[in-house]
Design a protein that fits this description.
It is a multi-pass membrane protein. This protein is mainly α. The chain has 4 helices and no strands. Helix content is about 60%, strand content about 0%. The protein is elongated. The N and C termini lie far apart (about 55 Å). The relative contact order is 0.15.
Length: about 120
């Protein structure tokens, strides 16, 4: 009889896993009208301390920054939609947010840090 150990359900996920989860939730926010993105933000804040000192700390910082900038720019775009240029702002914010989430996910999968987590790109 062979014995195959089962993973301990209480063992914590790796920092890499949390970074991937956060970025995946952000991407899911594109199809869930932001709900998954909010969950991603909550996970990012909850796991920020767990990933400190690892290559994935830059991912969490970048993800949190991406959420808040996207939210503020989205609100500005909504307000400007009454003037007529809001749609352009909203499209630009959407493209920027998706770019950052895809780039973050790819870098997390490759175990690479975000070069400038507080930068604009």
């Amino acid at each position: 009889m062979s014995y195959t150990p089962t993973p301990d359900a209480s063992s914590p996920a790796s920092p890499k896993t949390w970074a991937i989860v956060v970025w995946a939730l952000y991407l899911g926010g594109a199809v869930t009208v932001g709900i998954a993105g909010i969950v991603g933000l909550i996970v990012a804040y909850l796991k920020r301390g767990d990933v400190a000192g690892t290559v994935y700390a830059s991912h969490i910082t970048s993800a949190i920054r991406t959420f808040w900038i996207s939210l503020i720019a989205g609100i500005i775009g909504f307000v400007l939609s009454f003037v007529g240029i809001g749609l352009l702002v909203l499209i630009a914010v959407g493209i920027w947010s998706l770019f950052r989430a895809v780039r973050g996910l790819l870098k997390a999968l490759d175990a690479k840090p975000i070069d400038d987590p507080e930068g604009w790109l």
